[in-house]
Amino acid sequence: MIWRLEKQMxxxxxxxxxxxxxxxxxxxxxxxxxxxxxxxxxxxxxDVNRSTVVRAxxxxxxxxxxxxxxxxxxxxxxxKWGLFDSAKTNWRHYxxxxxFNTANPYLDAIQALKMAHPEKVIDLATGELPIELTPxxxxxxxxxxxxLAEELNNQSLGYLPLREAIGQRMFRTTxxxxxxxxxxxxxxxxQAIFLITQCLLRPGDAVAIEAPSYFYSLPLFxxxxxxxxxxxxxxAGAKPDELEQLYRKHRIKMVFTNPTFQNPxxxxxxxxxxxxxxSLCAKLQIPIVEDDPFGELHFETNQSITxxxxxxxxxxxxxxxFSKILGSTTRIGWLDGPAAVVNRLAEARQEMDFGLSIFPxxxxxxxxxxxxxxxxxAFLRAELKKRRDxxxxxxxxxxxDELQYKLPLGGFHLWIELPRLNQTTARDFNRFLDQKLLVxxxxxxxxxxxxxxxxxxxxxxxxxxxxxKRFAEILExxx
Length: 479
Prior knowledge:
Layout: H1 13-26, H2 39-46, H3 50-62, E1 66-69, E2 73-76, H4 91-97, H5 105-116, E3 122-123, H6 144-150, E4 154-155, E5 158-159, H7 160-174, E6 183-186, H8 189-199, E7 206-211, H9 220-223, E8 227-234, E9 237-238, H10 240-250, E10 254-257, H11 271-284, E11 288-292, H12 308-311, E12 316-321, H13 323-326, E13 333-336, H14 339-353, H15 358-369, H16 373-398, E14 404-405, E15 413-417, H17 426-434, E16 437-438, E17 440-441, E18 451-455, H18 461-478
Parallel strand pairs: 3-16, 7-8, 7-10, 10-11, 11-12
Antiparallel strand pairs: 1-2, 4-5, 6-13, 8-9, 12-13, 14-15, 15-18, 17-18
Helix pairs in contact: 1-3, 2-3, 7-15, 16-18
Protein backbone atom coordinates (compact mmCIF):
# COMPACT_ATOMS: atom_id res chain seq x y z
CA MET A 1 0.00 0.00 0.00
CA ILE A 2 1.18 3.51 -0.85
CA TRP A 3 0.79 5.85 2.16
CA ARG A 4 0.19 9.45 1.08
CA LEU A 5 -1.30 12.39 2.96
CA GLU A 6 -3.04 15.22 1.08
CA LYS A 7 -2.35 17.84 3.75
CA GLN A 8 -5.23 20.21 4.57
CA MET A 9 -4.62 23.54 6.30
CA UNK A 10 -7.92 23.53 8.23
CA UNK A 11 -7.45 20.16 9.96
CA UNK A 12 -4.75 19.09 12.46
CA UNK A 13 -2.32 16.58 10.97
CA UNK A 14 -3.11 13.84 13.50
CA UNK A 15 -6.81 14.04 12.57
CA UNK A 16 -5.91 13.84 8.89
CA UNK A 17 -3.97 10.64 9.64
CA UNK A 18 -6.96 9.23 11.53
CA UNK A 19 -9.21 9.95 8.55
CA UNK A 20 -6.67 8.39 6.18
CA UNK A 21 -6.59 5.12 8.15
CA UNK A 22 -10.39 5.09 8.48
CA UNK A 23 -10.75 5.61 4.73
CA UNK A 24 -8.44 2.66 4.00
CA UNK A 25 -10.46 0.50 6.40
CA UNK A 26 -13.79 1.54 4.88
CA UNK A 27 -12.56 0.80 1.36
CA UNK A 28 -11.27 -2.62 2.39
CA UNK A 29 -7.66 -1.65 1.66
CA UNK A 30 -6.74 -2.37 5.29
CA UNK A 31 -8.11 -5.73 6.32
CA UNK A 32 -8.94 -7.07 9.81
CA UNK A 33 -5.73 -8.07 11.55
CA UNK A 34 -3.50 -6.27 9.05
CA UNK A 35 -0.38 -4.71 10.55
CA UNK A 36 0.34 -1.02 9.97
CA UNK A 37 3.86 0.20 9.18
CA UNK A 38 6.05 1.00 12.21
CA UNK A 39 5.56 4.49 13.64
CA UNK A 40 8.87 5.81 12.32
CA UNK A 41 8.26 4.40 8.85
CA UNK A 42 4.70 5.74 8.73
CA UNK A 43 5.96 9.17 9.77
CA UNK A 44 8.52 9.00 6.96
CA UNK A 45 5.90 7.98 4.39
CA UNK A 46 3.54 10.78 5.44
CA ASP A 47 6.30 13.37 5.97
CA VAL A 48 5.20 14.21 9.53
CA ASN A 49 6.73 13.97 12.99
CA ARG A 50 6.63 10.62 14.74
CA SER A 51 4.77 12.20 17.66
CA THR A 52 1.95 13.14 15.27
CA VAL A 53 1.65 9.52 14.13
CA VAL A 54 1.69 8.29 17.75
CA ARG A 55 -1.16 10.63 18.70
CA ALA A 56 -3.24 9.52 15.69
CA UNK A 57 -2.72 5.82 16.43
CA UNK A 58 -3.54 6.32 20.11
CA UNK A 59 -6.84 7.97 19.12
CA UNK A 60 -7.64 5.11 16.75
CA UNK A 61 -6.86 2.60 19.49
CA UNK A 62 -9.14 4.46 21.93
CA UNK A 63 -12.02 4.15 19.44
CA UNK A 64 -11.32 0.43 19.00
CA UNK A 65 -10.44 0.62 15.34
CA UNK A 66 -6.86 -0.54 15.88
CA UNK A 67 -5.10 -2.57 18.54
CA UNK A 68 -1.69 -1.42 19.75
CA UNK A 69 0.56 -3.95 21.45
CA UNK A 70 3.93 -3.11 22.99
CA UNK A 71 6.64 -4.78 20.92
CA UNK A 72 4.20 -6.03 18.27
CA UNK A 73 3.09 -2.81 16.61
CA UNK A 74 -0.37 -1.70 15.54
CA UNK A 75 -2.98 -3.86 13.83
CA UNK A 76 -6.50 -3.30 12.49
CA UNK A 77 -9.03 -4.67 14.99
CA UNK A 78 -9.93 -8.18 13.79
CA UNK A 79 -13.37 -7.89 15.36
CA LYS A 80 -14.25 -5.10 12.93
CA TRP A 81 -14.83 -5.07 9.19
CA GLY A 82 -14.84 -1.51 7.90
CA LEU A 83 -16.01 0.62 10.83
CA PHE A 84 -18.78 -1.65 12.17
CA ASP A 85 -19.06 -2.05 15.92
CA SER A 86 -20.33 -5.65 15.90
CA ALA A 87 -18.17 -8.63 15.00
CA LYS A 88 -18.15 -9.50 11.30
CA THR A 89 -16.84 -12.32 9.14
CA ASN A 90 -13.06 -12.16 8.98
CA TRP A 91 -12.70 -11.73 5.25
CA ARG A 92 -8.94 -11.37 5.65
CA HIS A 93 -8.67 -15.14 5.96
CA TYR A 94 -10.48 -15.62 2.66
CA UNK A 95 -8.61 -12.87 0.84
CA UNK A 96 -5.20 -14.08 1.98
CA UNK A 97 -5.88 -17.76 1.29
CA UNK A 98 -7.32 -17.28 -2.22
CA UNK A 99 -5.34 -18.27 -5.30
CA PHE A 100 -5.54 -14.87 -6.97
CA ASN A 101 -2.86 -12.35 -6.02
CA THR A 102 -3.45 -8.63 -6.43
CA ALA A 103 -1.35 -6.32 -8.56
CA ASN A 104 1.33 -3.99 -7.16
CA PRO A 105 -0.13 -1.35 -4.77
CA TYR A 106 1.79 1.34 -6.66
CA LEU A 107 -0.47 0.70 -9.66
CA ASP A 108 -3.51 1.31 -7.45
CA ALA A 109 -1.99 4.61 -6.32
CA ILE A 110 -1.52 5.68 -9.94
CA GLN A 111 -5.14 4.88 -10.78
CA ALA A 112 -6.39 6.76 -7.71
CA LEU A 113 -4.37 9.84 -8.64
CA LYS A 114 -5.65 9.76 -12.23
CA MET A 115 -9.22 9.64 -10.97
CA ALA A 116 -8.73 12.37 -8.35
CA HIS A 117 -6.72 14.86 -10.46
CA PRO A 118 -7.22 14.03 -14.16
CA GLU A 119 -6.48 17.58 -15.28
CA LYS A 120 -3.25 17.91 -13.26
CA VAL A 121 -1.45 14.61 -13.84
CA ILE A 122 1.14 14.04 -16.55
CA ASP A 123 0.47 10.45 -17.55
CA LEU A 124 3.58 8.59 -18.71
CA ALA A 125 2.36 5.36 -17.11
CA THR A 126 -0.75 4.26 -18.99
CA GLY A 127 0.20 1.86 -21.77
CA GLU A 128 -2.91 2.39 -23.89
CA LEU A 129 -3.77 4.45 -26.96
CA PRO A 130 -5.43 7.82 -26.33
CA ILE A 131 -8.74 8.32 -28.09
CA GLU A 132 -7.25 10.65 -30.73
CA LEU A 133 -4.99 7.85 -32.02
CA THR A 134 -7.74 5.26 -32.44
CA PRO A 135 -8.97 4.59 -36.01
CA UNK A 136 -11.17 7.20 -37.69
CA UNK A 137 -13.09 4.53 -39.58
CA UNK A 138 -16.84 4.58 -40.08
CA UNK A 139 -18.35 1.31 -38.89
CA UNK A 140 -21.22 -0.33 -40.79
CA UNK A 141 -24.81 0.18 -39.76
CA UNK A 142 -25.80 -3.25 -38.47
CA UNK A 143 -29.16 -4.21 -37.05
CA UNK A 144 -29.64 -6.36 -33.98
CA UNK A 145 -30.79 -9.14 -36.31
CA UNK A 146 -27.53 -8.79 -38.26
CA UNK A 147 -25.47 -9.40 -35.13
CA LEU A 148 -27.64 -12.38 -34.22
CA ALA A 149 -27.11 -13.79 -37.70
CA GLU A 150 -23.34 -13.35 -37.39
CA GLU A 151 -23.48 -15.24 -34.09
CA LEU A 152 -23.91 -18.41 -36.18
CA ASN A 153 -20.26 -17.98 -37.23
CA ASN A 154 -19.08 -17.48 -33.64
CA GLN A 155 -17.56 -20.90 -32.99
CA SER A 156 -15.61 -22.05 -29.94
CA LEU A 157 -12.41 -20.74 -31.57
CA GLY A 158 -14.03 -17.37 -32.22
CA TYR A 159 -15.81 -15.59 -35.06
CA LEU A 160 -14.82 -17.43 -38.26
CA PRO A 161 -14.64 -14.38 -40.59
CA LEU A 162 -12.36 -12.65 -38.06
CA ARG A 163 -10.07 -15.68 -37.86
CA GLU A 164 -9.92 -15.69 -41.65
CA ALA A 165 -9.04 -11.98 -41.66
CA ILE A 166 -6.34 -12.53 -39.00
CA GLY A 167 -4.87 -15.37 -41.05
CA GLN A 168 -4.75 -13.18 -44.15
CA ARG A 169 -3.16 -10.36 -42.18
CA MET A 170 -0.47 -12.63 -40.76
CA PHE A 171 0.36 -13.90 -44.24
CA ARG A 172 0.73 -10.35 -45.59
CA THR A 173 2.90 -9.14 -42.69
CA THR A 174 4.97 -12.24 -41.85
CA UNK A 175 4.58 -14.70 -44.72
CA UNK A 176 3.07 -17.26 -42.34
CA UNK A 177 0.17 -19.26 -43.76
CA UNK A 178 -2.33 -20.01 -41.00
CA UNK A 179 -5.37 -22.27 -41.02
CA UNK A 180 -8.41 -21.05 -39.10
CA UNK A 181 -8.22 -24.09 -36.78
CA UNK A 182 -4.80 -22.82 -35.60
CA UNK A 183 -6.20 -19.47 -34.44
CA UNK A 184 -8.10 -18.81 -31.21
CA UNK A 185 -9.70 -15.38 -30.82
CA UNK A 186 -9.33 -14.06 -27.26
CA UNK A 187 -10.51 -11.04 -25.30
CA UNK A 188 -7.02 -9.53 -25.40
CA UNK A 189 -3.54 -10.90 -24.84
CA UNK A 190 -4.02 -11.42 -21.10
CA GLN A 191 -6.79 -13.96 -21.66
CA ALA A 192 -4.44 -15.92 -23.92
CA ILE A 193 -1.76 -15.88 -21.21
CA PHE A 194 -4.33 -16.89 -18.59
CA LEU A 195 -5.47 -19.88 -20.67
CA ILE A 196 -1.88 -20.99 -21.22
CA THR A 197 -0.94 -20.78 -17.53
CA GLN A 198 -4.13 -22.51 -16.39
CA CYS A 199 -4.42 -25.23 -19.04
CA LEU A 200 -0.91 -26.11 -20.22
CA LEU A 201 1.00 -25.79 -16.96
CA ARG A 202 0.58 -27.12 -13.43
CA PRO A 203 1.17 -25.54 -10.01
CA GLY A 204 4.85 -25.88 -9.19
CA ASP A 205 6.02 -25.81 -12.81
CA ALA A 206 9.00 -23.56 -13.52
CA VAL A 207 8.78 -20.89 -16.23
CA ALA A 208 11.41 -18.47 -17.50
CA ILE A 209 10.40 -14.86 -18.09
CA GLU A 210 12.79 -12.31 -19.54
CA ALA A 211 13.71 -9.60 -17.05
CA PRO A 212 12.61 -6.90 -16.90
CA SER A 213 9.18 -7.64 -18.31
CA TYR A 214 5.58 -6.48 -17.96
CA PHE A 215 4.77 -10.14 -17.25
CA TYR A 216 6.03 -9.48 -13.70
CA SER A 217 3.24 -6.93 -13.21
CA LEU A 218 0.58 -9.57 -13.94
CA PRO A 219 -0.74 -11.69 -11.05
CA LEU A 220 -1.60 -14.54 -13.44
CA PHE A 221 1.63 -16.47 -12.94
CA UNK A 222 1.63 -16.42 -9.15
CA UNK A 223 -2.08 -17.19 -9.07
CA UNK A 224 -1.44 -20.30 -11.17
CA UNK A 225 1.15 -21.45 -8.61
CA UNK A 226 4.03 -21.25 -11.09
CA UNK A 227 7.67 -20.81 -10.10
CA UNK A 228 9.07 -17.82 -11.98
CA UNK A 229 12.74 -17.53 -12.90
CA UNK A 230 14.19 -14.37 -14.42
CA UNK A 231 15.80 -14.78 -17.83
CA UNK A 232 18.48 -12.07 -18.16
CA UNK A 233 18.50 -9.95 -21.29
CA UNK A 234 20.74 -7.35 -22.89
CA UNK A 235 20.27 -5.02 -25.85
CA ALA A 236 20.24 -8.03 -28.20
CA GLY A 237 17.41 -9.67 -26.25
CA ALA A 238 16.97 -12.66 -23.92
CA LYS A 239 20.20 -14.62 -23.39
CA PRO A 240 19.99 -18.26 -24.57
CA ASP A 241 23.04 -19.35 -22.56
CA GLU A 242 21.36 -18.11 -19.37
CA LEU A 243 18.21 -20.03 -20.32
CA GLU A 244 20.19 -23.23 -20.69
CA GLN A 245 21.57 -22.81 -17.16
CA LEU A 246 18.07 -22.16 -15.81
CA TYR A 247 16.82 -25.28 -17.53
CA ARG A 248 19.53 -27.46 -16.03
CA LYS A 249 18.87 -26.10 -12.52
CA HIS A 250 15.08 -25.81 -12.51
CA ARG A 251 13.72 -27.87 -15.45
CA ILE A 252 12.05 -24.90 -17.11
CA LYS A 253 8.75 -25.92 -18.70
CA MET A 254 8.00 -22.80 -20.77
CA VAL A 255 9.60 -19.50 -21.83
CA PHE A 256 7.65 -16.22 -22.04
CA THR A 257 9.10 -13.48 -24.20
CA ASN A 258 8.09 -10.20 -25.85
CA PRO A 259 10.89 -9.90 -28.43
CA THR A 260 9.59 -7.01 -30.54
CA PHE A 261 9.63 -3.51 -28.95
CA GLN A 262 9.56 -5.17 -25.58
CA ASN A 263 7.48 -3.90 -22.70
CA PRO A 264 8.98 -2.12 -20.75
CA UNK A 265 12.37 -1.61 -22.42
CA UNK A 266 11.28 -1.00 -26.03
CA UNK A 267 14.06 -3.42 -26.97
CA UNK A 268 14.10 -5.24 -30.32
CA UNK A 269 15.62 -8.72 -30.17
CA UNK A 270 18.21 -9.20 -32.92
CA UNK A 271 17.74 -11.74 -35.70
CA UNK A 272 20.71 -13.82 -34.55
CA UNK A 273 19.47 -13.87 -30.95
CA UNK A 274 16.00 -14.92 -32.13
CA UNK A 275 17.43 -17.85 -34.05
CA UNK A 276 19.63 -18.89 -31.14
CA UNK A 277 16.72 -18.78 -28.67
CA UNK A 278 14.40 -20.75 -30.95
CA SER A 279 17.10 -23.32 -31.69
CA LEU A 280 17.90 -23.89 -28.01
CA CYS A 281 14.24 -24.23 -27.02
CA ALA A 282 13.65 -26.74 -29.81
CA LYS A 283 16.68 -28.72 -28.64
CA LEU A 284 15.49 -28.72 -25.01
CA GLN A 285 11.83 -29.16 -26.02
CA ILE A 286 10.74 -26.03 -24.16
CA PRO A 287 7.73 -24.27 -25.72
CA ILE A 288 8.02 -20.53 -26.28
CA VAL A 289 5.18 -18.08 -25.72
CA GLU A 290 5.79 -15.08 -28.00
CA ASP A 291 3.76 -12.03 -27.02
CA ASP A 292 3.68 -9.55 -29.91
CA PRO A 293 1.37 -6.56 -29.33
CA PHE A 294 3.70 -4.03 -31.01
CA GLY A 295 4.93 -5.95 -34.06
CA GLU A 296 3.17 -3.65 -36.55
CA LEU A 297 4.17 -0.44 -34.77
CA HIS A 298 7.69 -0.06 -36.20
CA PHE A 299 9.03 3.41 -37.02
CA GLU A 300 11.55 2.52 -39.73
CA THR A 301 10.07 1.80 -43.17
CA ASN A 302 12.86 -0.60 -44.12
CA GLN A 303 12.65 -2.56 -40.87
CA SER A 304 12.43 -6.33 -41.33
CA ILE A 305 11.34 -8.25 -38.23
CA THR A 306 11.03 -12.03 -38.16
CA UNK A 307 8.60 -13.33 -35.52
CA UNK A 308 9.84 -16.29 -33.50
CA UNK A 309 6.73 -18.08 -34.78
CA UNK A 310 8.09 -18.00 -38.31
CA UNK A 311 11.36 -19.58 -37.17
CA UNK A 312 9.58 -22.52 -35.49
CA UNK A 313 5.86 -22.85 -36.18
CA UNK A 314 5.41 -25.94 -34.00
CA UNK A 315 7.23 -24.92 -30.82
CA UNK A 316 6.09 -21.29 -30.56
CA UNK A 317 2.70 -20.16 -29.27
CA UNK A 318 2.16 -16.72 -30.77
CA UNK A 319 -0.06 -14.10 -29.11
CA UNK A 320 -1.24 -11.13 -31.16
CA UNK A 321 -3.44 -8.21 -30.17
CA PHE A 322 -5.36 -5.34 -31.77
CA SER A 323 -5.56 -3.36 -28.51
CA LYS A 324 -2.43 -1.30 -29.26
CA ILE A 325 -3.69 -0.48 -32.76
CA LEU A 326 -7.46 -0.11 -32.35
CA GLY A 327 -7.61 0.95 -28.68
CA SER A 328 -7.94 -0.93 -25.41
CA THR A 329 -11.74 -1.07 -25.47
CA THR A 330 -11.53 -3.43 -28.46
CA ARG A 331 -10.00 -6.14 -26.25
CA ILE A 332 -9.48 -8.50 -29.16
CA GLY A 333 -6.41 -10.68 -29.46
CA TRP A 334 -5.57 -14.10 -30.76
CA LEU A 335 -3.43 -17.12 -30.06
CA ASP A 336 -1.72 -19.02 -32.87
CA GLY A 337 -0.61 -22.56 -32.10
CA PRO A 338 -0.94 -26.22 -33.05
CA ALA A 339 -4.58 -27.15 -33.69
CA ALA A 340 -4.69 -29.64 -30.80
CA VAL A 341 -3.43 -27.02 -28.33
CA VAL A 342 -5.74 -24.31 -29.63
CA ASN A 343 -8.76 -26.63 -29.39
CA ARG A 344 -7.90 -27.57 -25.80
CA LEU A 345 -7.69 -23.91 -24.81
CA ALA A 346 -10.96 -23.17 -26.61
CA GLU A 347 -12.71 -25.95 -24.69
CA ALA A 348 -11.38 -24.61 -21.39
CA ARG A 349 -12.43 -21.07 -22.28
CA GLN A 350 -15.96 -22.21 -23.10
CA GLU A 351 -16.21 -23.94 -19.73
CA MET A 352 -15.25 -20.64 -18.08
CA ASP A 353 -17.24 -18.03 -20.02
CA PHE A 354 -18.98 -19.70 -22.96
CA GLY A 355 -16.91 -17.89 -25.56
CA LEU A 356 -16.60 -14.27 -26.68
CA SER A 357 -19.17 -11.62 -27.44
CA ILE A 358 -19.85 -11.30 -31.15
CA PHE A 359 -19.92 -7.47 -31.09
CA PRO A 360 -16.20 -6.60 -30.77
CA UNK A 361 -15.29 -9.46 -33.10
CA UNK A 362 -17.54 -8.19 -35.90
CA UNK A 363 -16.20 -4.65 -35.48
CA UNK A 364 -12.57 -5.83 -35.41
CA UNK A 365 -13.11 -7.82 -38.59
CA UNK A 366 -14.66 -4.81 -40.32
CA UNK A 367 -11.77 -2.51 -39.34
CA UNK A 368 -9.16 -5.10 -40.34
CA UNK A 369 -10.70 -5.48 -43.80
CA UNK A 370 -11.34 -1.76 -44.26
CA UNK A 371 -9.50 0.06 -47.04
CA UNK A 372 -8.61 2.70 -44.41
CA UNK A 373 -6.76 0.28 -42.11
CA UNK A 374 -3.34 0.68 -43.75
CA UNK A 375 -3.72 4.47 -43.69
CA UNK A 376 -4.53 4.28 -39.99
CA UNK A 377 -1.42 2.17 -39.34
CA ALA A 378 0.79 4.61 -41.26
CA PHE A 379 -0.69 7.55 -39.33
CA LEU A 380 -0.27 5.73 -36.00
CA ARG A 381 3.37 4.85 -36.64
CA ALA A 382 4.20 8.42 -37.65
CA GLU A 383 2.38 9.93 -34.68
CA LEU A 384 3.98 7.57 -32.15
CA LYS A 385 7.43 8.33 -33.56
CA LYS A 386 6.70 12.06 -33.31
CA ARG A 387 5.59 11.71 -29.69
CA ARG A 388 8.65 9.61 -28.83
CA ASP A 389 10.86 12.39 -30.21
CA UNK A 390 8.95 15.10 -28.32
CA UNK A 391 9.50 13.31 -25.02
CA UNK A 392 13.17 12.51 -25.64
CA UNK A 393 13.96 16.07 -26.75
CA UNK A 394 12.26 17.55 -23.68
CA UNK A 395 14.05 15.18 -21.30
CA UNK A 396 17.42 15.92 -22.88
CA UNK A 397 16.77 19.66 -22.65
CA UNK A 398 15.84 19.61 -18.95
CA UNK A 399 18.11 16.75 -17.83
CA UNK A 400 21.46 17.24 -19.55
CA ASP A 401 23.99 14.60 -18.50
CA GLU A 402 21.35 12.94 -16.28
CA LEU A 403 19.54 10.67 -18.70
CA GLN A 404 20.49 7.19 -19.92
CA TYR A 405 18.33 5.46 -22.51
CA LYS A 406 18.26 3.59 -25.80
CA LEU A 407 15.96 5.07 -28.45
CA PRO A 408 13.14 2.57 -29.19
CA LEU A 409 12.47 1.88 -32.87
CA GLY A 410 8.80 1.11 -32.34
CA GLY A 411 6.07 0.48 -29.79
CA PHE A 412 4.90 2.76 -26.96
CA HIS A 413 7.67 2.76 -24.38
CA LEU A 414 10.93 4.51 -23.47
CA TRP A 415 13.07 2.84 -20.78
CA ILE A 416 15.26 5.32 -18.92
CA GLU A 417 17.74 5.35 -16.09
CA LEU A 418 18.44 8.36 -13.88
CA PRO A 419 21.66 7.45 -12.02
CA ARG A 420 21.36 10.39 -9.61
CA LEU A 421 18.29 8.74 -8.09
CA ASN A 422 20.64 5.88 -7.15
CA GLN A 423 18.50 3.14 -5.53
CA THR A 424 14.89 4.25 -5.84
CA THR A 425 12.76 3.70 -2.76
CA ALA A 426 9.05 3.98 -2.04
CA ARG A 427 9.70 7.51 -0.83
CA ASP A 428 11.41 8.41 -4.11
CA PHE A 429 8.35 7.35 -6.06
CA ASN A 430 6.07 9.10 -3.59
CA ARG A 431 7.81 12.24 -4.84
CA PHE A 432 6.71 11.39 -8.38
CA LEU A 433 3.15 10.97 -7.14
CA ASP A 434 3.39 14.23 -5.19
CA GLN A 435 4.43 15.97 -8.41
CA LYS A 436 1.51 14.24 -10.17
CA LEU A 437 4.00 12.75 -12.61
CA LEU A 438 2.91 9.20 -13.38
CA VAL A 439 5.71 6.80 -14.33
CA UNK A 440 6.15 3.04 -14.06
CA UNK A 441 9.08 2.18 -11.75
CA UNK A 442 11.41 -0.66 -12.62
CA UNK A 443 10.31 -2.71 -9.60
CA UNK A 444 6.88 -3.17 -11.22
CA UNK A 445 8.68 -5.11 -13.98
CA UNK A 446 11.00 -7.09 -11.74
CA UNK A 447 14.03 -4.78 -11.86
CA UNK A 448 15.40 -2.69 -9.02
CA UNK A 449 17.34 0.54 -9.27
CA UNK A 450 16.78 3.96 -10.79
CA UNK A 451 15.09 2.70 -13.96
CA UNK A 452 11.55 3.39 -15.11
CA UNK A 453 9.24 3.05 -18.09
CA UNK A 454 7.82 6.15 -19.75
CA UNK A 455 4.95 5.67 -22.21
CA UNK A 456 4.99 8.30 -24.94
CA UNK A 457 1.69 7.37 -26.64
CA UNK A 458 -0.18 10.13 -24.76
CA UNK A 459 2.50 12.80 -24.97
CA UNK A 460 1.94 16.28 -26.42
CA UNK A 461 4.52 19.02 -26.86
CA UNK A 462 3.18 20.78 -23.76
CA UNK A 463 2.98 17.67 -21.58
CA UNK A 464 6.45 16.50 -22.65
CA UNK A 465 8.01 19.79 -21.49
CA UNK A 466 6.01 19.81 -18.27
CA UNK A 467 7.01 16.20 -17.55
CA UNK A 468 10.69 17.01 -18.09
CA LYS A 469 10.37 20.05 -15.83
CA ARG A 470 8.87 17.91 -13.05
CA PHE A 471 11.64 15.34 -13.48
CA ALA A 472 14.20 18.10 -13.01
CA GLU A 473 12.45 19.31 -9.84
CA ILE A 474 12.42 15.78 -8.40
CA LEU A 475 16.13 15.34 -9.11
CA GLU A 476 16.90 18.73 -7.60
CA UNK A 477 15.03 17.79 -4.42
CA UNK A 478 16.97 14.51 -4.30
CA UNK A 479 20.34 16.32 -4.34
